[in-house]
Design brief:
alpha/beta, Rossmann fold, five-stranded parallel beta sheet, globular, histidinol dehydrogenase activity, NAD binding, oxidoreductase, amino-acid biosynthesis
């Protein structure tokens, strides 16, 4: 593959070893303290990091209604419409997941059931931006999956209850809402405290401290995925509009100063014009201090010879969001397999997925799209197998097979469980049974 890089990232990785180690140590200290001291430690860290220490972190019904009343009717209507889209798609996903039972031979039944997790936590970020849509993606999806109890945690913003976020969480179906953020929120939900119930599964994006807390607590609870900085990659041909390309690159670069924004195209003209429009738009973009740094440090523009090379290179990036601006955008469905989500055609942008179109915006980053997809109703379900043998003949024959398989692995105890069934149902003789039953 011959690729010409018109722009390379100024920083080669989004990970800084020293800062990562510091985050790891801080998070471990917070988790250990909350494990030992519960609510007392939670309150201490909330005061320290968020200057927030209310009488109760859990909102009462009256407080929830008061917060909703502070949100404009238009925003409430928009939340409901976005959630309707998310619910519709999530319900279609749930309907596609079937319980299974088959009779693999006469009298031998195998099956699985898709049972929802009993309790789930949703973390809704609120630092640089109040991510209302994260409430739709985490809480509503869990409820469609059938999770009976979902709690939401979101941090205060500038010392106040984030009214619109609370409205989104309530309308999504949260059973309890806590104004609590950061590592202390994740640890409280994972471990359980005097006032915060322990959850079995936690979903939702967050900053480096939230991601590290999820990593350290994985195993004590399930998690959706370990998310890094937001990523966007655009695959474009010579028909693409460079202004649209530039606009969409910056739409994701504004998430954070370490958000990679990449363009791969077979047209040098499109590439250079898109770069020019990025520079031009940064002059007036309100979030330019963030988006500009992301573009400078992590932006990348690559020109390849043809579209097959473009798709191949895009698959190597395995980006979180991949937009396809080509004459035949659905071609990417066959050409690519490594991505968090595809956005096909210039009429479709990543921002739709982030906010309102209905697919889930909690997606794999840092090349994790090579081996996993994003959050969906299936993440909240446990696919659990069962088996039943009702035929004596079948049980006896399986016993013979089990005995041979087990002794090949030198598991005598396993073998004897099989022997016993063939002894009972096929009347086979075993010396160990005769001796043990004396």
């Amino acid at each position: 593959m011959v690729a010409r890089r018109l722009k390379s990232p100024a920083v080669t990785t989004t990970d800084n070893a020293a800062s990562s180690l510091k985050v790891t140590q801080i998070v471990k200290g917070v988790i250990d303290d909350i494990r030992a001291n519960g609510d007392k430690a939670v309150r201490s860290y909330s005061e320290k990091f968020d200057k927030w220490s209310p009488e109760s972190f859990k909102l009462s019904d009256a407080q929830i209604q008061e917060a909703i009343c502070r949100v404009s009717p238009q925003t409430i209507a928009d939340i409901k419409e976005a959630q309707r889209n998310v619910r519709t798609f999530a319900e279609a996903q749930r309907a596609s997941i079937k319980d299974v039972e088959i009779e693999i031979q006469p009298g031998v039944f195998l099956g699985h059931r898709n049972n929802p997790i009993s309790t789930a936590g949703a973390y809704i970020p609120g630092g640089r931006y109040p991510l209302l849509a994260s409430a739709h993606m985490t809480i509503l999806t869990a409820k469609v999956a059938g999770v009976p109890h979902v709690i939401a945690c979101t941090p205060p913003i500038n010392g106040e209850v984030p009214a619109a976020t609370v409205a989104a969480a309530h309308l999504a179906g949260a059973d309890a809402i806590y104004i609590l953020g950061g590592t202390q929120a994740v640890a409280a939900m994972a471990l359980g405290t005097e006032t915060v119930p322990k959850v079995e599964f936690l979903a939702g994006p967050g900053n480096a401290f939230v991601a590290e807390a999820k990593r350290q607590l994985f195993g004590e609870m399930g998690i959706d995925l370990l998310a890094g900085p937001t990523e966007i990659l655009i695959v474009a041909d010579g028909q693409a509009d460079p202004f649209t390309v530039a606009t969409d690159l910056l739409s994701q670069a504004e998430h954070g100063p370490d958000s990679p924004a990449v363009l791969i195209t077979n047209s040098e003209e499109v590439a250079r014009e898109a770069m020019r429009f990025v520079d031009e738009q940064l002059k007036s973009l309100v979030t330019a201090p963030v988006a500009g740094q992301a573009w400078r440090d992590f932006g990348e523009v690559v020109v390849v010879d043809n579209m097959d090379e473009a798709y191949k290179l895009a698959d190597e990036f395995a980006s979180e969001h991949v937009q396809i601006f080509t004459e035949r955008p659905r071609e990417a469905l066959d050409k690519m397999t490594n991505y968090g989500a595809l956005f096909l055609g210039e009429k479709t942008c990543v921002s739709y997925g982030d906010k309102c179109i209905g697919t889930n915006h909690v997606l794999p980053t840092k090349k994790a799209g090579r081996y996993t997809g994003g959050l969906w109703v299936g993440k909240y379900l446990k696919t659990q197998t069962y088996q039943e043998v009702v035929s004596e003949k079948a049980s006896g024959e399986l016993g013979l097979l089990c005995g041979r398989c087990s002794r090949a692995e030198q598991f005598e105890g396993h073998a004897r469980s099989g022997d016993l069934r063939s002894w009972k149902y096929l009347k086979d003789g075993y010396s160990w049974i005769d001796e043990a039953r004396k």
